[in-house]
Amino acid sequence: MAVAIKTWGKELGFHDVRIADAQADMSTVESGLFQWLAQGYHGDMDYMAKHGTKRTRPAELEPGTQRVVSVCMNYAPPAVKNSWDVIHDGDQAFISRYALGRDYHKVIRARLQKLADRITGEVGTFQYRVFSDSAPVMEVAWAQKSGLGWRGKHTLLLNRQAGSMFFLGEMYVDLPLPVDEETGNYCGSCSRCIDVCPTQAIIGPYQVDARRCISYLTIELKDSIPEPLRPLIGNRIYGCDDCQLVCPWNKYAKITQENDFHVRNGLDEVSLIELFGWDQATFEAKLAGSAIRRIGHTQWLRNIAVGLGNAPYSVEIVQTLQARVDDSSDMVREHVQWALQQQDQKRTAIQESST
Fold it and tell me: Where does this protein hold tRNA (predicted)?
């Protein structure tokens, strides 16, 4: 049955499927989580602290669970604009490459449900529950325990054949399947991910202070972005891939075969000005089915305002920002004013350098 599950999983588009014992010793992972929470590194992500040991003890979340089936699916889209070229062009908007297509939560859970249906057809009714970043599950820890890869120093899962540009999903099952062995850690002495982080959010190997992470600041944080961090964000308006882009293992990252993860609406190469011009209706329509839509239009404008403030000075950018100085959102107005101040400082610097 374990062999069949792995075969069916690959037929459904997962590039690997592995199995871990749900009763495996997770005491080190559990204590690490509690220490991370105690230090406040989770910021405003209160959901990380809500469920206690359910994250590391599957049977507490889903009684009867015996095994954790972990899956991964590549997301690197084909024919995508080079990430560094976009990041280094201050007028462009950089969006994390995982978010350029359809919302992965929907895709992964739907495929896992199909896998569950195949299993049901073979063994009859069994107890299961499928996940993809959708419940208190330590996804990376269980993927590591199953042998899908190892936790890199940036805390993402790494795989020798696929780098880190893939999504994870899990199925808790009550089937006593044979389990797979863990793999080794192959980061060695490399620290490129730590060194490249724009905000130095990776405070040490395997330790991230989410409060400084650009992904947290642009996606999870619902309030104003702290001013000292705004200039460091650059033009990254949704997520940040820097730690993955410099990782040597990502030379093995595979182009996705999943059409749902292909680039939509030209989001791999689009100007900040264009995106800032989207009204609520356009935002909702363009990003229907996208993970980005979850942050809402107000947070979207907040992020882009920061990007415009960090962009090279231009009259067009100033005019674009001025069009929203009276925005209905206090948060948007605050970030627009900050961005206008940044543009004014750059204009002054240009004038002074030319005299």
Answer: 222
